[in-house]
Specification:
Largest sheet: 4 strands, antiparallel
Number of domains: 3
Low-confidence stretches: none
CATH topology of the largest domain: NADH Oxidase
Structural class: alpha+beta
CATH class of the largest domain: Alpha Beta
Helix content: 40-55%
Radius of gyration: 21 Å
Strand order of the largest sheet: 1-2-4-3
Strand content: 5-15%
Shape: globular
CATH architecture of the largest domain: 3-Layer(aba) Sandwich
Distance between the termini: 48 Å
Length: 277
């Protein structure tokens, strides 16, 4: 492992790697150095570049080659403004030159089943799962391709905070649903690498074993806060939980999930025609 790859690994995990990487290429380096970008310059992304990135994105793996993904490029300023107006937390997206909405699309195969006069016999939860996973993989492919060309990206799950209004704005028909938005542009600054959980938590051998997760996550909290401490003003829901002197990733996200979010999403997916049994 080169010095630069070692540094990238340490930034990502706050730890020394357990093993030397036998191969250290540009792709590994690109992924180790990934960072979300929320501040963009005014430079426009040329249409041919965007088209090429989308071609690369849709080269991602697809469950059974079903290709159950669609993406909506929000090129109309008025539509973009309407999407943002429904969610004040998306105000920063105004400056993004490109806004993409990645959608799971189970409509296409169902329409073709009717056309070919075949019964669609797999109308159950797996149909939703396959489309959602496919959309996520295509979006990730886009991010890697975009970052290889010097662009910055930020996935936006918050578009689902106002799922019904977003669906109406985009005129999504039955069996099509938003998975995430993606802001894309040339980065205004370098940003920072978000430290990830260690493999001792996320990688299991042969069987699932979380015996020591609490200890490992506690150590991770300390490493992460040591590099990028959370200001008191950024602690979640202080009106409910107060200000913690030992605030870290686990406190942040257990607070996040202690308050109901997107409770209308299941109803929305059923309204879109999916049978979740």
């Amino acid at each position: 492992m080169t010095t630069s790859h070692m540094h990238a690994y340490q930034q990502r995990y706050g730890l020394q790697p357990e093993h030397e990487l036998p191969v250290c290429n540009e792709t590994l380096m690109l992924q180790l150095k990934h960072r979300s970008c929320r501040k963009f310059t005014e430079e426009i992304i040329p249409n041919d570049v965007l088209s090429t990135l989308l071609a690369s994105a849709f080269s991602a793996p697809s469950k059974s080659d079903l290709q159950q993904i669609s993406v909506i490029n929000i090129a109309d300023i008025k539509i973009k403004a309407e999407i943002i107006s429904n969610n004040p937390l998306l105000k920063w997206v105004e400056q993004a030159p490109v806004l993409l909405i990645w959608c799971g699309d189970s409509r296409r195969i169902r329409t073709l089943s009717d056309h070919r006069e075949h019964t669609f016999a797999n109308d159950h939860l797996d149909a939703f799962m396959n489309a959602a996973v496919d959309a996520g993989m295509v979006m990730q492919n886009f991010i890697i391709s975009a970052e290889s060309m010097g662009l910055g990206c930020c996935p936006i799950s918050q578009v689902r905070d106002s799922i019904n209004s977003l669906s109406n704005i985009l005129k999504l028909p039955k069996w099509v649903f938003p998975v995430a938005g993606l802001a894309v542009g040339f980065p205004q600054d370098a940003g920072h690498v978000s430290m990830r959980l260690p493999n001792t938590v996320t990688v299991h051998q042969n069987v699932y074993d979380d015996t020591n997760d609490v200890q490992h996550v506690g150590d991770y909290d300390k490493r992460r806060e040591g590099v990028h401490p959370t200001p008191d003003a950024a602690q979640l829901h202080p009106q409910l939980f107060g200000i913690s002197e030992e605030y870290g990733w686990s406190e942040q996200h257990t607070r996040q999930y202690a308050v109901p979010m997107r409770t209308d999403f299941g109803d929305y997916i059923r309204k879109q025609g999916f049978n979740l049994k």
